[in-house]
Write a structure and sequence with these properties.
- The complex is a heterodimer of chains A (277) and B (109).
- Chain A has helices at 2-15, 17-20, and strands at residues 38-50, 56-71, 74-89, 92-99, 102-108, 111-114, 119-130, 143-153, 157-167, 176-177, 181-190, 192-193, 201-213, 217-218, 221-222, 228-240, 244-258, 264-265, 268-276.
- Chain A is mainly beta.
- In chain A, the strands form 2 sheets. Chain A has a 12-stranded antiparallel barrel.
- In chain A, a hairpin with a 3-residue loop joins strand 8 and strand 9 (157-167).
- Chain A is globular and about 55 Å long.
- Chain A starts with a helix and ends with a strand.
- Chain B has one domain (29-107): Alpha-Beta Plaits, CATH 3.30.70.
- Chain B has a 4-stranded antiparallel sheet with strand order 2-3-1-4, covered by helices on one side.
- Chain B is globular.
- Classes of the chains: A mainly beta (277), B alpha+beta (109).
- Chain A binds chain B through residues 28, 31-37, 40, 42, 44, 60, 62, 64, 69, 71-72, 82, 84, 95, 97, 109, 112, 114-116, 119, 121, 153-155, 158, 191, 193, 197-201, 240-245, 273-277, and chain B through 2-3, 6, 9-10, 13-14, 17-18, 20-21, 25, 45-46, 48-51, 53-56, 58-59, 72-76, 98-103, 105.
Chain lengths: 277, 109
């Protein structure tokens, strides 16, 4: 069994690691949108992993997220991503592209307080990632993800805290199961009002993110060279209008504890737009 | 080739978003002056950004007696113009504010 586990470890290095850790700007995540409101969110994310021996894995992800305020306290969200991946090993490069898995989740307004000077909200989420992606870009597993978001806003400051946990392969579909993931994010932003009427604002954003990925396993055996703990600091900016929000973010890994021999994470970049209908 | 397709697709999507976002949302196009119509102003809490008020305006505009609805997050105000000859129940506006996940502070005017 252990030999089988080792043989899977390199496969995991190639296929699994980069898609999962792809958060975005989390500001306002605890505040659910109005009933009947549609929000379309599209992003371009660049991420890469590499080592000193000349191995580089690059990935461009184009997620499109559609959210709808089904009721004032229930928001349904679907996400589909197009992924372009490049690998360079000892000077030889290969690329491929395809659709990743579909993720659908529900956000529930557990608490909301609006006052003249402060808005505060708490919203848990529960979702499923379906193995709908093309084989090279799918985890081939049914994954369950739960999260809890809290957001506080004043007219100028906003802050968010979120905790999310991903249970991989709840259906028991694959032999080598990717490890579960825990992510904790904290974000703070300051809003500059750019015009007299307040129709345009600009916000520098700073996020701190903790990501823990448990080792993949086959049965009760851990797959070698899997599992990691990463701490990111992410400076970014957001430009908001009444219908469009444009956002950009750099995710800088400031601490990375890798289990065994793995490629190190490099700086990630995110550019996105949100359209509010 | 695939890179180019992806970039073109993304570019078109962003462009479409910009065009959609720049489209006018002005709902005050009925030809009457404000002096001819009843204008009500409500205080609304919970709007803290430029993108916050659109959902509220959409909900208030669904009330049959409402002609136009304009919210301003900075002033924490919702301005509602009542259709000529119509009667608007404040409770319908308060219900729309609740369904937008905001809190009504009361009617100012």
């Amino acid at each position: 069994m252990r030999g089988c586990a080792r043989s899977f470890s390199f496969l995991f290095l190639l296929l699994i690691p980069m898609v999962s850790a792809a958060a975005g700007i989390s500001v306002d995540a605890g505040l659910t949108p109005a009933e009947g409101r549609w929000i379309l969110r599209s992003q371009v994310r660049y991420m890469s992993r590499g080592d000193d021996a000349g191995v580089l894995m690059e990935q461009l992800v184009f997620p499109v997220v559609l959210a709808y305020g089904l009721r004032s306290n229930v928001t349904v969200v679907g996400r589909q991503a197009l992924i372009h991946r490049g690998r360079t090993v000892l000077g030889n490069s290969t690329t491929n592209s395809g659709f990743g898995d579909t993720y659908v989740f529900v956000k529930y307004k557990a608490y909301r307080m609006n006052s003249r000077h402060l808005t505060f909200g708490v919203a848990p989420t529960l979702g499923v990632e379906f193995p709908t992606g093309e084989s090279a870009f799918s985890s081939n597993t049914w994954d369950l993800k739960s999260g809890l978001y809290a957001s506080a806003r004043t007219r100028t400051w906003s802050s968010d805290v979120s905790v999310a946990y991903l249970w991989n392969d709840v259906g028991g579909n694959v032999m080598a199961v990717p490890g579960d993931e825990l992510s904790i994010d904290a974000a703070v932003a300051y809003q500059f009002i750019m015009d007299e009427s307040g129709l345009v604002t600009a916000s520098p954003v700073l996020e701190l993110s903790y990501l823990k990925v448990w080792p993949s396993h086959i049965g009760s055996d851990d797959v070698p060279n899997t599992g990691e703990t990463v701490l990111y600091v992410s400076p970014g900016a957001k430009l908001s209008t009444s219908m469009i929000i444009v956002e950009g973010l750099m995710r800088i890994p400031i601490r990375e504890d890798l289990v065994g021999n793995q490629l190190e994470r490099n700086v990630q970049a995110l550019l996105g737009v949100r359209i509010l209908f | 080739m695939m890179n180019r397709k992806i970039l073109i697709t993304t570019g078109l999507l962003l462009l479409w978003g910009m065009i959609a976002g720049c489209a006018s949302r002005d709902s005050r196009a009925s030809g009457m002056t404000d002096e001819d119509r009843e204008v009500r102003i409500y205080e609304v809490f919970g709007m803290d950004c430029p993108g916050c008020h659109g959902g509220l305006e959409n909900l208030v505009l669904k009330i049959p007696a409402v002609d136009t609805a304009t919210a301003n997050w900075k002033e924490q105000r919702l301005v509602v113009v009542v259709k000529p000859g119509s009667s608007l129940d404040d409770e319908l506006v308060y219900d729309a504010i609740r369904r937008a996940n905001f809190t009504a502070g009361g009617r100012i005017q």
